[in-house]
Amino acid sequence: MDAAETQGPRGAPAPPQPLSATPAPTPLVSVVVVAHDPGEWFNDVLAGLAAQDHRHLDIVVVDAGRRPGLADRVLNALPDARTVEASGSPGFGAAANRAVVGASGDHTNGGTGPNRIPSYHLFMHDDVVLDGTAVRRMVERAVAANAGVVGPKVLVGTDGRILHDMGCTVDRYGSPVPRLHPGEVDQGQYDAEPDVFAVAEAALLVRTDLFAAVGGFDPEIHFLDGHVDLCWRARLAGATVTTAPTAVGRTVSGDTSVRRGTNPAILRPRHKLRMSLTNQAPGRAASVVVELAAATVLGTAYGLLTGRFRHVWGLLSAWPWNLHRRAGVSHRRRIIARHRRVDPGRVVAGPDMPHHAIRRAVTGRAPYGTGDEAPGNIAFHNIWSALLGPGGIALMASAAVLGFGSRHLLTRGLPAVGRLQALPANPMDLVRSWWHGWRPTGTGVATTGPDALALLGVVARVVPGSDNLIWTAVVLAALPVGALGVWRLVRPVGGGRSRAAAVLTYLAVPLPYDALREGRLAPLAVYATLPWIAHRLAEAQGVVPYGHRGGDPGPGTRIRDMGSDILLTGLVVAAAIAVDPTVVVVLPVLVGGLVVGSLLAGSIAGLTRLVAVAAGGAVVAAIVQFPLLIGLFDNHPLDSLAVPTTWPRGSLGTAAMFTLDTGSPLGGPTWAGTFGIDRIGWAVLVVPALALLTTTGWRLAISIRAAFVVAGGFASVWLVDQGWWQGPTVPPELLLVPVALGLAWAAAAAVADMGTTISMPRRGANWRNSLPAVAGLALALTVLPVVIGSLGGRLGMPEADLPSSLPFIAEPRSGIGETTSGGDNRVLWVGEPTILPAVGVPLTDGPLSGDVAVAVTDGRPDLLDQWPYDLTGAPGVAEIRDALTEALTGRTSRLGGAIGAWGISHIVLVERSAPAPHEAVEAALPPTYAAALTRQLDMVRVEGLNSAVTIFENIATRPVHAVVRDRTGRAVPAAVTPLAYDRFRVQASADGAYRWILGPEGSWSFSVDGTTRPLVPADEAGGVPGRPSVRVASGTIGELVHDSASSRSRRLLQVVALCGVLLLASWLRSDPEPEWP
Amino acid sequence: MSAMNAVRYPALVVLAAMVVGSTVFASPPDPVARATLLPPVHAALSTTPDSGDLWFCVGPTVAMDEISGRIVTLTSISDEPTVGRVTVNGDNGAEVERAFQLEPGRSMEIRPGPFVPGALHAGVTVEVPGGRVLVEQRITGGTTDDEAVPGIGTGVDEAPCGTITSASWQVPWATTAEPGNTAVLLVYNPFRAPAVADLRFIGDLGRRETLDTRGVVVAGRSLAVFDLNDLIPDSEVVSASVDARVGQLVVARLQVADQSTSGTGGSGGSTGLAVTPGLPETSDRLFLPGVSREWGVTSSVVVMNPGEDTTELEVLVRPEDVGAFVEPWRVTLRGRQRQVVDLGSGRIADAGRFGVEVRSLDGAPLAASLISRTEGGTTAAGLAALPAVGAAATDWMVHLTGPADQAALVVSNPGETTIATVRLSLLGAAWPSDTPDLYEIDPAGHIEVELGAAIAAEATVLVDSSVPVLSVMRRDDPAGRSSSFGMAIAGTQTRPSL
User: Fold this and answer.
1) Which of A551, A723, A940 sits opposite B193 (nearest CB)?
2) Chain B, 69-128: which have a CB under 8 Å from a chain A CB?
């Protein structure tokens, strides 16, 4: 008879079986049931014992609880059973030991002859109902296998098909590892391998002599692991521990730990340390103790980071707990030593992997198994199933297209276009600029730099390989990251086809490719992060399928509390701001679209929560990015955070807006689309439009919300394009990212709804059957330009960049230890702000201030020069700009002298984003620029270069570091050697006043032999005109150091704030209890 | 929880309204703003302290046989001291740079010759960061310094220096007719970077484009001199074009005529010198104000087609008497050809004073120049060449350095529809009461004001007009004749209206 045959309804005990006609010598089994205030189910437990077909039972019920009346319940069900009081809640092991000892000395109790001493003890918890044959089958199994310990197969009482416990193994550190994982259906999969390390906790049959030999249960282990310890010692004594698969029991009380008020997170670390100390060989025990000490440190950090404070307490308290009970450990080791038959090292040699053991020791969590039914394997199988479905195939095809389309970029690196300039020669300069708050761009400015670039610097330093390729991979990652965000966003909406439609739509819009081509970083950052923000907001709103409001949540939806939603949303927004602060522009569009769409869909469900999470997320992001806020409060204008952008009124136009094919506002009427196909761009609107017209129910609600996200994006672009917005503008690609997101979202709803209606023909008319074909055609047309564009292998980016055309001024900044005469020469870049290789400031103020910008770099531009700054903090740039304006208006013919005072050695007029003849964004400067500069008497036009640039050499430049002679006023270059990012060694080459043209003024100090030299104010006797200086003698060697204390303090606080928010988010997001049975 | 049941039509209505609204309220795109340079005038003067000027003077030095004097005069019209810098570059490579300070209202004379000993020609660059300085030069022919003797080998040229550089220059007229004519082309590069230019010449026998005139490198801060007598010998009319591939240049032509004993050819009898700036731009409308029929003086207009295509043009005479009509000359010019229109042919026998407009009939850009020469047998030196211009200005300054009774101010209204109201005044002095100071000039008309003896020899006349006009100073003294445009006030120049 197998387990299935003995199953009763809902875990009830099976009816008693008739006794065998031929009596056989049956061993006496002493059943010890430790009861701890059991519930109503205990009657079933007792009935199960009463129904056992093994008649030689001596049943003892140990009352370890506090409630009275247990003895009466026992007597009612089992008149022959005894009840023993175990006062003081000694725990399972101690109570069982006490019952065994009490029984052996009780000569007044029933039983005679040889059966007076039981052959086996059956220790049971009070919540397991044994089938009628269970004891007999366990005894038979014990006899047949000559086993010392036998356990039953334990099923879940509420569902007889689900396995509850089939025993366990232990890992290196004594952590029990269940053989099965929760919810696993009993298919006899473990029956063929009955031998286990430890049998099920609920009931274990132990041979009496063995029990006595190993010293019974460890009384210090009250709950949970006493059976493991006992089995462990039994195996050390050479006994076999096995399971009787045909002996079935069922748990009936739910979570035992909760009922008993015990916490595995606290008890288990104590137990495993004690078991290791007791049962392991001395050498191995010492090793395990050391490793567990390290695991305690790591686990404490992990618990603090994830908010599992009871886990932390369990780890920490395990040591004093065991130290306090060290005498018991020694005692038990002596007992084991007397009866040990097996090498301890061979006992703990299960198949478990070491990293799983470490993970259990550190986190208290672990995978339940590694078989086919393991969650990890199931997830892996699910991924493969998804990838091999129609949606997955579409995704793999798109990944292949993008990979093929960017092959030259991935192999040769990203050309330096717009903001996508190369990394500095030392990528850690990105980190230093972030930390010190100072950059050499713009003659030296103190600004709050971007966090993401600092992270990039770390990545470039840590990851081996070419910096340019790493930078390329980071930039191109915006595409898959955005696509993955959309995939997760629409996962609850429908199946693989709908997800594929959404991702294909999102990947097929020209926005990211336009941004790449024009070298715009902010749109790429928004493209990558906005789906994740939208996902957070959708889950925060909690409307079906993203929550319980209006229906059941869809697949992949996680319901979190509001705090967790706020923190996660804030962190995602802060991450986007870390790349470019202008990304916040699109957040009101997204939130507004969701709110308006919800209202017009006829539901206000979750709106309050949505707005609260959005507002809270903004606050969290502001906290994390508070250095930026401090800058704004410090009278820095908002537009100092935005790269100047040219957007003449009406330059974008309706067609480009609706097809999301912005190209460049400078592209003019001849613009033919990002990949040369502009007319089929309208196809991207077809599927989302179908969503509005054909979906129903909650999919219609999603379609409407998505449509108003689209409408919000279009409206913002239209307002700017019509000139109604007079403030600082952002690139059109950035404002259109919400449109792309909304279109993808709506496309998913449309395709999901098509699947529903097609599969239910009675719901829809015949015309609905044509919708999939229409949608498929539209999607094909949408992706066609990208497919064609991928043939070039560069995603529309040029093959060469401007620095390759300017070799003589494209020298990087001098590196650490590299001595130069007078410091690095500077370059003034003039042109349309988008195509300049560095971020500059508008040449003129006013409505069209973005038309032409000027940027100042130290030699070749790099990523350090791509972050906007406030002009008031860069007086050098302000003066250079004014001088250039004077030259352009014909007020001076000595521009070289004016800008040479700031170390400018070259002026470069930039009219293409890449050198000719490569494809590029063109923005011709008015002829007045070249004409005016040609008329300068102290500048020389450098001829024979690419038509993308016009270069003028300044023959009146002066060194950045120089000693000004007293008598002649001549600036003699000083020998300058960078010692660190913001520290220079300077050797004076003449007697006079050493002056440096490094901003910001007043933040630099010059010291000689550790003594700071006094500054001579500008224009005073002994000084130099216009700048502070230091008196030096020829040959003096000193250090010029930038004072960045305030920036470092801010950054430190920012890191603390970020860690605090991360910690809080982790605490709120984590489950309070480890997922450990 | 009830199932979500969304409604469709409110959203559709709102979306449709948004689409309609965006269509209805859409504005047309802004026209692409094309920043354009102001039309060039030969000399544009800054009169505000926040604007500076850069002046370029080219010409011979006294080391040249036919030249007795060359003086560059700097006159301050500022009320505060003016600092600046003068750079002199000789054609022998010499370069001298000096700073100067000019007190308010004072003048300073610079004689370039001694700065660059041995140089036959010199270019002078005057930097005035604060503006408000008039820069002129006076070149006299003869054998003694400053005192040109009327007659053989003499002449005078007095004109403001230029403030313009260009990559393209046209010189419609010069003559190398033998005997007695000397013509050189002066190409001045005042900037640091070398310039590369292509030179084309058109003589009586046609074009001359040889390798030695292609890709000519003019070093930075240098003056290149091309002897037209060598390049195009014995040609009645020599025209030249200078196109800089790289850089910007200042181009002028020095013409010295000594043909008092010659009675042949169109240039017979003319004597004098003229340093005439080239035309920095071509235009389909060109103006030559201040022509008069005088005894012993012949005037002609040389029109040049610098383009490659054949063009048709008219030479229109604008008499002072608006009722008079002169039949225009209609000329057809092939590409890179020029033609001389003799204004003394009898067609304008009674026209008196008049202006000339050269107008292309098909919009092709043209270049032109007015040449006035004394006829054979006269004793006065008289060669004046006035480059035609296509731009006018509302405000002018005309500096008078010689006797006022020998000078006449011509103000011409090139517009064809608007009457110009012109007020004349003197800088720092009162306008003479016996001379009207307010004039109305009919469209295409002009006035000629004899400045008379009431005005001091050193005076600056201010011309303030309601519409763009042209101001020309004509001098006719015994030493020679000269004619030159005044100095426009920077920023007031524009194209005349049709």
Assistant:
1) A940
2) 87, 125, 127
How do residues A558-578 score in pLDDT, each as one tens digit?
888 888 899 999 999 999 899
Written as one letter, the residue type at A868 is P
Exposed, middle or buried by CB within 10 Å (0-12, 13-18, 19+), for A599? Answer: middle
B34 touches chain A (CB under 8 A): yes
Which of B14, B26, B32 comes nearest A722 by C-beta? Answer: B26
Nearest CA in chain B to A706: B11
Number of H helices, E strands in chain B: 3, 35
What was the pLDDT predicted at A1074? 43
Residue of B nearest to A939 (CA): B192
- What chain B holds in terms of domains, given with CATH numbers, is 11-141 (2.60.290.11), 393-479+486-494 (2.60.290.11)
- Rounded Cα gap, residues B199 and A594, in angstroms: 70
Q: Which residues, listed in sequence order, are joined to residue B185 by a DSSP beta bridge?
A: B226, B253
Nearest CA in chain A to B38: A928
* A interface test, pick of B1, B4, B22, B249 with most A CB neighbours within 10 Å: B4
SS3 A866: coil
Query: Given an 8 Å threshold on Cβ–Cβ distance, is A715 in contact with B25?
Result: no
Cβ separation A943–B246 shorter than 8 A: yes
Residue B166 neighbours by CB distance under 10 Å: 20
- Token digits for A900? 């040479």
For A144-173, b/e burial (b = at least 16 CB within 10 A) is ebebbbbbbbbbbbeebeebbbbbbbbbbb
Other residues' Cβ atoms within 10 Å of the Cβ of residue A106: 13
Which amino acid appears at position A1073 of this protein? E
pLDDT, tens digit (0-9, with 9 covering 90-100), for B71-129: 999 999 988 999 999 999 999 999 999 999 999 988 999 999 999 999 999 999 999 98
Which residue from B3, B220, B246 is facing A551, i.e. has the nearest CB? Answer: B3
| pLDDT tens-digit series, residues A106-121 | 433 333 344 468 889 9
- Identify the sign of the CA torsion A575, A579, A581, A587: negative
Q: Which of B4, B50, B490 faces A543 most closely, judged by CB atoms?
A: B4
Pick the residue from chain A with its C-alpha nearest to B166: A931
Residue A488 CA: distances (Å) to CA of A379, A485, A498, A597, A738: 15, 5, 12, 21, 16
- pTM higher than 0.95 for the full model? no
Which of residues A1036 and A667 earns the better pLDDT score?
A: A1036
Which of A962 and A945 is assigned the larger pLDDT?
A962
Using CA atoms, how far apart are residues A964 and A1052, in angstroms rounded to an integer?
39
Question: Closest Cα of chain B to A551: distance in Å?
Answer: 5
Q: What is the mean pLDDT of residues A390-410?
A: 83
Residue B187 CA from chain centroid, whole number: 15
B346 has pLDDT over 90: no
Q: Are B37 and A927 in contact (CB < 8 Å)?
A: yes
In sequence order, what are the beta bridge partners of A1030? A994
Distance in angstroms (rounded) separating the CA atoms of residues A123 and A248: 15
* Strand (E) or helix (H) holding A952: strand A949-954
Using an 8 Å Cβ cutoff, are A74 and A61 in contact?
yes
Nearest CB neighbour to A892, from listed B14, B87, B129: B129
Q: Residue B408: which of B428, B430, B384, B391 has the closest Cα?
A: B384
Beta-strand relationship, A82-85 and A57-63: parallel
Identify the three-state secondary structure at position A505: helix
| Phi–psi pair at B142, nearest 5 degrees | 125, -170
Q: What pLDDT score does A622 carry? A: 93
Q: Is A700 within 8 Å of chain B by CB?
A: yes
Which chain B residue lies closest to A926 (C-alpha atoms)?
B35
